[in-house]
Design goal:
Strand 2 and strand 3 form a beta hairpin. By secondary structure, this protein is of the alpha/beta class. The protein contains three helices and eight strands, in the order E-H-E-E-E-H-E-H-E-E-E.
């Protein structure tokens, strides 16, 4: 029965103490836009970022704690890992100028060129150019 379920989209939701630096990372370096933002005073509690058919969400730990029935302890405060395919790894490297590199550019046995960076909330993003 489950093979008949049509999945239309999967979106990563990343958690952080503050999300504004991560928003800047994706918007300024990679051309995403804010599709949805939920304020919490003068800060953001939640944001959905979009670019073409891609979407990425961020939520603060405080916002999770404020949600009814949810405790921040239920959200592990470690990094998440994203694997992102890009068309041109050299353009990507130029866009990451000044960002902490956690894995230098490498050629993989499966034919990809990859580099990993740490985005402002501490999550690790591996960018890859296939073939």
């Amino acid at each position: 029965m489950s093979s008949q379920v049509k999945v239309q989209k999967i979106t990563a939701l990343l958690f952080a103490e503050q999300i504004e630096p991560s928003v800047s990372f994706w918007v300024e370096r990679l051309g995403f836009t804010k599709a949805i933002e939920v304020p919490d005073g003068d800060k953001l509690a939640f944001v959905a970022l979009k670019k073409d058919n891609l979407e990425l969400m961020y939520q603060t730990f405080k916002s999770v704690d404020d949600d009814a029935g949810t405790r921040v302890e239920s959200v592990r405060k470690g990094p998440s890992f994203l694997y992102v395919d890009v068309e041109d790894i050299q353009k990507l490297i130029a866009a990451m100028n000044g960002v902490e590199v956690t894995m230098p550019l490498r050629d993989t046995f499966y034919g990809a060129k990859e580099i990993a960076v740490k985005e402002p909330a501490g999550h690790i993003v591996t960018f890859a150019q296939q073939g």
